[in-house]
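Hi R.,

As promised on Friday, here is the backbone we talked about, encoded as structure tokens. Could you run it through your design pipeline when you get a chance and send me back a sequence?
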């Protein structure tokens, strides 16, 4: 273990030193401009060898450990450098393709995913199948060497910009709902695919509803076995929860540091300010304690686990507590342009507060996480 830690310390110094020499981009708030900047930044990170670090070399990765990946994530955040735009591919879909994909899928799809040449979206949720994902109704019917897909997905991040979609479909309507699902990799340029952005309360339009009208998907784009997509989907979601928790923990800590710096420059040091920052600090310390256990699991070689649901719940609370406390300090003038209550940049903290409300929904709602913990960790009977 000491040798591993020494190696990580050396690796961290290398990453920190190289980052200090790089031109870190400023990220605009306007969504289209933000997307373009972050896509170029992903190519820069790929060229530096900092993406797919824990992936196999055969898939275009570095063949290192999740701990090395965490070092890069932490150093990017500490340097106030943005994450790449393709996180759905990098943190969510890509690891499942690396683990379950055919040689063709891994060779043809993953290098372009890593570099940002191809952006991926995740076609899981539907209008009537969100938290109860296994109730999905998007159908795929075999037709020779193709699947013909019809249905609708919703809350699909970046679908209007994506080249590929990791799509859950029902291929056996007669089977039990968890047993008749397959996992397809769909080219978003296929005839019959329509993506329509949805405006969020943040003002962003990164979510989409996506329609599939008799879309033909080659059989070689099936990930894993037909009707065996549910277990792969669980791997995808588990990977998403672990990666998001570790990344967001550092991002939230840096956000709190930035907010405290703004408050100090303004001289805000009243009881209300100290209490709000104290509550946020405690929530993040709890999250930090939890993620130390997660890091220990990853260091031991553990993969996706029901423990990821505990991570997700603790992250939900910490993220929402942090940004709710900052929003409260902004007071009733928080939405007034050009006003900086207590020296806080209202445009940043209002946006982050509104976005944080989704933390207990995306990646599986808090209710679903509690069910997973109850059944798979505590052994309680299904209700």
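Update: got your reply. Pasting your designed sequence below so it's all in one thread:
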């Amino acid at each position: 273990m000491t040798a591993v830690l020494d190696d990580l310390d050396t690796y961290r110094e290398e990453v920190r030193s190289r980052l200090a020499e790089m031109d870190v981009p400023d990220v605009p708030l306007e969504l289209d401009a933000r997307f373009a900047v972050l896509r170029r930044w992903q190519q820069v990170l790929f060229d530096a060898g900092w993406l797919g670090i824990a992936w196999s070399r055969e898939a275009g990765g570095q063949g290192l450990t999740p701990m090395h990946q965490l070092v890069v994530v932490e150093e990017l955040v500490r340097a106030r450098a943005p994450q790449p735009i393709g996180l759905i591919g990098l943190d969510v879909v890509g690891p499942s393709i690396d683990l379950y994909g055919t040689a063709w899928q891994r060779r043809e799809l993953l290098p372009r995913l890593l570099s940002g040449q191809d952006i991926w979206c995740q076609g899981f949720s539907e209008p009537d199948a969100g938290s109860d994902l296994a109730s999905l109704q998007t159908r795929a019917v075999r037709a020779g060497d193709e699947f013909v897909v019809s249905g609708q997905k919703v809350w699909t991040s970046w679908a209007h910009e994506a080249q590929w979609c990791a799509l859950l479909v029902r291929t056996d309507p007669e089977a039990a709902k968890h047993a008749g699902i397959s996992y397809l990799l769909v080219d978003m340029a296929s005839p019959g695919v329509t993506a329509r952005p949805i405006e969020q309360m943040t003002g962003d339009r990164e979510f989409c509803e996506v329609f599939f009208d008799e879309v033909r998907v080659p059989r070689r784009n099936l990930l894993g076995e037909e009707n065996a997509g549910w277990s792969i989907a669980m791997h995808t979601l588990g990977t998403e929860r672990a990666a998001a928790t570790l990344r967001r923990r550092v991002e939230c800590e840096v956000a709190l540091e930035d907010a405290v710096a703004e408050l100090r420059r303004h001289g805000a040091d009243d009881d209300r300010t100290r209490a709000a920052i104290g509550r946020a600090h405690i929530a993040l310390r709890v999250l930090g304690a939890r993620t130390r256990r997660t890091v220990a699991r990853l260091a031991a070689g553990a993969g996706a686990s029901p423990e990821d649901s505990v991570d997700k719940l603790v992250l939900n609370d910490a993220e929402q507590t942090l940004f709710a406390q900052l929003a409260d300090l902004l007071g009733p003038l928080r939405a007034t342009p050009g006003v900086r209550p207590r020296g806080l940049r209202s445009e940043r903290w209002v946006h982050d507060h509104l976005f944080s409300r989704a933390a207990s929904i995306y990646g599986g709602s808090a209710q679903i996480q509690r069910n997973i913990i109850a059944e798979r960790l505590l052994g309680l009977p299904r209700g």
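One thing I noticed while checking it: Confidence is low (pLDDT under 50) at residues 1-5.

Thanks again,
M.
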